[in-house]
Amino acid sequence: MRIGMVAGELSGDLLGGGLIQALRANHPNIMVEGIGGPQMIAAGFHSHYPLETLSVMGLVEVIKHFSQLKQCRDQLRTYFLQHPPDLFIGIDAPDFNLGLEQALKSAGIPTVHYVSPSVWAWRHYRLRKIARSCDLMLTLFPFEADYYQQHAIPVRFVGHPLADQIPLQTDPQTARQQLNLPPAEKWVTLLPGSRRHEVLQLGIPFLQTAQWLLTHYPQMRFLVPLASPSLKALFCQQLAQVAPNLPITLLIGQSHEAMVAADVVLTASGTATLEAMLLKRPMVVAYRLAAVTYWLARWLVHIPYFSLPNLLAQEQLVAEFLQDQVTPENLGTALLHWLENPQAVETLQTHFTKIQVQLRLGANQQAAQAVLAIINQTRIAKMANSG
Predict the structure, then answer these.
(1) At the top level of CATH, which class does the domain 2-159+361-386 belong to?
(2) What tens digit of pLDDT does each residue of 130-184 get?
(3) Which residues fall within 8 angstroms of residue 291, CB to CB, at 6 or more apart?
(4) Any idea which UniProt keywords this protein has (predicted)?
C-alpha cells in the first residue's frame, strides 16, 4: 500500500506523524511519501523535498517564492500521476495542496484533505474548489464539519490530537517547580506569537500591559516562552526599549509548561489559545494585523469571534481584543477579571473540560480509519468494474 502525503509546516508535520503511526499500526509495511518534516520522517516517511520548501507565510513571501513553489507542485503532480498512490492526503497548506489534489482526483486517485481551510470565516468561494479537489475533508473541530455538511461536501470530524495528548487536569505548582520559578504572588504568561510579524505587532503592547498590571500586584512575575532564539532576541530588544526592569523570565520553547505555571495567560490568537484552553488556563486573547490587511479583513471575514475557545463554545468564554482595542488598559482589566474572580475561573475551566472531552476522539486513529476506508472502497469498486 502506498500513500502520497504533503504537509505544509510544522503543525502539519505533527498531524502527519501521528497519522502515519496510526496507519502503520494496521499496515506495518505501508509506504508514505511526498513532503514532510521530522515527525513524519521519524514515522518512516520519505520526503522528496524539505518541509521548509512550503513553509512560506504572507503574500509577499509567497510571491517571492512562487516559481519555486510552482515547480515543486508540478514535479510532485507528475511523479504521483506516473506512480499513482492508493490515496493522496494534503495536510493543511490549502493554496498548495488543493490544486495538487484536484489534478490527482481528476486522474482517478482518491484524495483526502486534513485540516479545513477557514472557509467558514472567509473565502467561501473555495468550497467549489474543495468539492472538486478532495473525496473527503477531515476536520479537527465540530463546527467545521457542520459547515461542510450544510454544503453537501463529504466530511468527517476526527477530533484534535492535542486534546488526546494533554491530560484533563494539570498542576501549576509542579510546572513552576519544573521551570525553577521563584515564589510569586501571581504568575502571568505572555505569548506574543510564534512568528516574527506577530511579535512585532504584540510584543510591546504585551510588555506595556505587564507594567500596567504591576501597579495592582507589585509582587507579580511574568513568564514568556519564545518559539526560537531569533524571536527571543527580538523580544529582548522590545523589553530593553519598553520595560527594562520588568520582573520577567524568558524561555525558549516550553510553552505548555509556561502556560500551566501561570495564573492567567495573555496570548496572541492562534493555536496557543487552543493549547491554553486544553491546559485549563484562563486567558485573554489579542491580535493585531497590518493596517491594510485589517482593512481588507473587515470586509471579508464574517464570524462573531476569532479565538478558538469562543468559536468552539459558540459564545464568548474569554475576552478577545483586535487591532486598536489592544491597549494596556483593556488587556490588563480583562486579566484582572480572572486574577480576582476564582469562581469565574472554575466555571471557565468546567467549560474548557467539556470542550476537550468533545475533541478527545483519538484523532490519529479516526483519521487513519477514514483513510483506510476510502482505500478499501476504491479497491472494491475497481474489482466490481473489472468483473
Answers:
(1) alpha beta
(2) 999 999 999 999 989 998 999 999 999 999 999 999 999 999 999 999 999 988 7
(3) none
(4) Glycosyltransferase, Lipid A biosynthesis, Lipid biosynthesis, Lipid metabolism, Transferase
